[in-house]
Amino acid sequence: MKRKIVVIGASGTIGKAVAKALEEGGHEVVRVSRSSGGYRADIQQKESLDALFKSIGTFDAVANAAGDVVAGPFEQLTDENFAFALGHKLMGQINIVRAALPYISDKGSFALVSGVLTDEPIAGGTLGTVVNGGVEGFVKAASHELPRGIRINCISPTVLTESPSYHPYFPGFIPVDAWKVAKAYERALLGIINGRILRV
């Protein structure tokens, strides 16, 4: 069954792979980026998300691959660093769901993104661990409360093969190809699971 799927963060490594996989599967993909393309939104600004979904209209699913955090030694993190990470990757994704609810189809689905730091902290990654844990907690709880049979899941990828500049910060981690992460998004969006964290 062909679905209309909004992919947020579509210009990033994961977002590109997700959009490609969904299009190859015969689905209509609406690409959203922060600073390029026909549809733009900053997930840190709820009014930006409200305007985005109003302009798109109805759709069947949302795949989010956007969300920024700040890395650095804990004792050097500032109030602004915490506010940015919590406002962007955590509240940004919560607000994606809130803003999209009036427009998403009955039995639609959301796929959000966390990351390996939830379970495997690294030096300088405290904020990433905190925020990813918050995203996963939101998904587990919201899965019981979303209306109209709407499902929500979360993808938790490790460091990507396509991002070698990050590899030194993840010593001993085995990188994963972006296409494998995209497969997890497909499973979350197109299958029947709900409230799950898919670790890739």
UniProtKB/TrEMBL annotation:
It comes from the Bacteria. GO terms for molecular function: oxidoreductase activity. Belongs to the short-chain dehydrogenases/reductases (SDR) family. This is NAD(P)-dependent dehydrogenase, short-chain alcohol dehydrogenase family. Keywords: Oxidoreductase. SUPFAM superfamilies: NAD(P)-binding Rossmann-fold domains. It comes from Chryseolinea serpens. The keyword Transmembrane helix does not apply. NCBIfam families: PRK07578.1 (NF005754).
